[in-house]
Each structure stands twice: as C-alpha cells, then as structure tokens.
Task: inverse folding
C-alpha cells in the first residue's frame, strides 16, 4: 500500500499538527506501508523541493504571493494541486490522504479526479472553528458560514472521512453526512517517543527554582482558547492553600506577551515561570519535574468538539492530569479516575480542584497507573494505525466503480 499524505505543514516545523502527522506516518511505515507527504504553500519557503526528515520523504510546495481572500486561497489550492499532481506522477500512490484544513482536501480532490485515485480527508478541527479559537474569526460571520459550507461540500465529495474524535463525528452526522463514511482516528501517543518517562530531573528543577515544590505545568501553544490567563489568575488562590505551589509554562504563541504581563502583575509572580519553546526531544525532561499537567481550555465550540493531544502525552509520562470540563477533555479524562475535571472559565474553581488534587497524595499513583493504562490500550499509535487499513482497502478495491466529482465551487469568504 502506497499512501501520499497532503499536509498544511510538516516536519521539521514543530506543532501539535506535525507531531500527530509524524506519529501517523511513522506508524504506517512500521506497518509496512510506503508513505510520503506533500506540504502546502503555507509550510513556508524551504531550501529543498524534496527532503527526508526523520525517515519520512517530504515534497514541498512553493509559497504563493499573499493577496486578499478568497483570491489568495484559490491561488494556494491551484499551486498545491499542481505540486500534488507532480508528486503523484513520481510516487504513484494507491491513496491520497488529505489532512485539514479544507484547502488541502480541495487541492487533493482536483488531483484525485484527474488521476482517478481515491481520497481520504482527515479532519482534526473545523477550519472555521479554529479561526474563532485563534482569534482570527467570528462565529456566525459571513466568512464563518462560507467556510463551514465549503467544509461540508468537501466532506460530501471525498471517498472517506477520518475525524479525530466523536465530537467532530457527531457534528458531521448532524450535517447530513452518512455515518458509514466516517471513521474515528483518535489522537494518540507514539509510545516509542513517550513510552518511558525520565526520572525526576533534579538539575533542571534546581535551575528553574522549583526543587521540592508542588509543580503545576502546562506544555503546549499559548492560544487564547487554552485558557492560560485563567490558570495564572488561579495561582494566588492556589498558593494561599498550597504555599509551595509553582507554575511552569513551557511553549509560546500569540498570547505569550499578554500572559507574561499578567504574570508579572500577579501577587504571586515569583511562583510563575515561563520557559519558552523547547525542542521536542527535550520535552520529557520538563514532564519529569511536573506533578500536575493543567489544561484550562475555555468553553467554546472548538474545545467542546475537538480533543487535544497533550493530555495523552502527559498520561503516557505517568503525570497527573487536570483539565477544564469541556467536551474535548471529557473524551479523554474520566473525572476522579484517570484525571480531574474542573469548571471552565472559573479560576476559583480551578484553584480548588488543583489544591484538592495536590493534597490527595495517597491517590496519585493509582491515577497515574490508570492514565497510563488508558493510553496504552486506547490511544497508542501502534494500535490506532490499524483503523486506516479497512478504509484504504475498501477504497482501493472499489476504484473500478469510481465516478468523477463535479468541479469545486468558488470560494466566497
């Protein structure tokens, strides 16, 4: 089986998107499939048109000049489709596997129709909801509604759809999509990367000034929807109850400057530590010094529909997990069993939940073990990758009766 993955961006860039992609492609390689990936114009300029990163062959698409919407998006689709077509001629895949956003599916559909190839579209989040979560869009706006309609159009025309969680699956069924067309391929952990936690890194803890403290941590991107402002706001209340509590924030993103200013003005500023971005190969050192990984996502459509990856990595590292009680977290965390759920958008409620968890040391080891067991049994990429096999096989077996699609509609955003 030869699969060509169509990506918004990929390695060596680092993001939750690229880490999931890497896990999928490496797991497919270990299964014996031949895989390659084409990254779109938004990956940015690269020195090489083709390169191998971490044993994966990547083909790059040149960026296109920026212009107003929707003309910029149309240029991107055309440029990406041309590059995909070139790679198809060279790699000769059996299946095209496009990953969100929907622009990738639209580019892939053009090539799939021309080359008579089956295409799978994998949705990690709806583009319109991601824009709202990132602060670049408004729910219910003309652009939001147009993007949503375009997503639905694409889903109806690809051969199969994979989604990362039940929230997205139920939403698509509500749009009239045949449930039989949908497969859930949940977020998972590559246990070859996160399988064995490091021992407590005393030197790192001492350098950060958290040796012997009760450490709350966040490792990820600093977007508004992550709710880190609520976590910082909870710290004075938490320190009142647990004086040794320290907060370690690893990562960066659009909200970093505002969060640093908020932390500097906090009465417990000395308890809040910003680390910045660290190489992915160094992340497990920071996991080793954290007692509780906190994920205080705000309640909105994006966080209710989409499951994050980071809590799974934390469970694989045998860390305690505490998260806001939103739909995406409820698919991953069983309250007071594998983790703790606290009210979203509520710093006081968050502080109470974290204080209670820190005080319950007798229950820590059991929670750690149950969280780790959940990831090994249900969110392990060595097992998750098998979900693609029947989808690919059905599509390749059925290509003889494949019918062409109509032309994509014009973008109207």
Result:
């Amino acid at each position: 089986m030869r699969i060509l993955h169509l990506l918004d961006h990929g390695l060596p860039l680092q993001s939750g998107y690229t880490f999931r992609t890497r896990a999928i492609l490496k797991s497919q390689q270990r299964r014996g499939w031949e895989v390659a990936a084409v990254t779109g114009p938004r990956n940015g300029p690269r020195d090489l048109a083709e390169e191998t990163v971490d044993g994966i062959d990547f083909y790059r698409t040149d960026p296109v000049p920026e212009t107003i919407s929707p003309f910029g998006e149309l240029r991107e689709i055309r440029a990406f489709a041309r590059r995909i077509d070139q790679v198809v001629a060279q790699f000769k895949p059996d299946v095209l596997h496009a990953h969100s956003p929907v622009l990738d599916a639209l580019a892939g559909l053009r090539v799939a129709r021309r080359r008579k190839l089956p295409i799978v579209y994998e949705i990690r989040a709806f583009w319109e909801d991601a824009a709202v979560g990132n602060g670049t869009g408004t729910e219910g706006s003309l652009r939001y509604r147009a993007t949503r309609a375009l997503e639905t159009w694409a889903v109806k025309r690809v051969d199969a759809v994979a989604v990362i969680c039940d929230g997205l699956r139920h939403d698509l069924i509500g749009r009239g999509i045949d449930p039989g067309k949908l497969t859930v391929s949940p977020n998972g952990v590559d246990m070859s990367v996160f399988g064995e936690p490091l021992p407590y890194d005393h030197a790192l803890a001492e350098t950060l000034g958290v040796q012997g403290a009760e450490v709350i941590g966040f490792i990820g991107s600093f977007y508004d929807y992550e709710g880190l402002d609520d976590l910082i706001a909870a710290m004075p209340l938490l320190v009142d109850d647990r004086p040794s509590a320290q907060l370690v924030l690893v990562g960066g993103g659009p909200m970093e400057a505002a969060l640093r200013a908020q932390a500097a003005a906090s009465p417990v500023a000395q308890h809040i530590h910003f680390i910045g971005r660290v190489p992915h190969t160094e992340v497990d050192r920071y996991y080793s010094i954290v007692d509780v990984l906190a994920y205080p996502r705000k309640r909105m459509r994006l966080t209710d529909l989409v499951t994050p990856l980071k809590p799974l990595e934390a469970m694989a590292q045998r860390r305690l997990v505490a998260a806001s009680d939103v739909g995406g977290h409820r698919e991953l965390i069983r309250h007071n069993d594998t983790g703790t759920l606290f009210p979203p958008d509520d710093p006081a409620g968050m502080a109470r939940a974290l204080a209670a968890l820190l005080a319950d040391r007798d229950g820590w080891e059991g929670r750690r073990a149950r969280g780790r067991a959940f990831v090994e049994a249900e969110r392990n990429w060595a097992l998750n990758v098998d979900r693609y096999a029947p989808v690919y096989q059905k599509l390749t077996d059925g290509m003889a009766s494949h019918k062409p699609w109509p032309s994509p509609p014009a973008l109207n955003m």
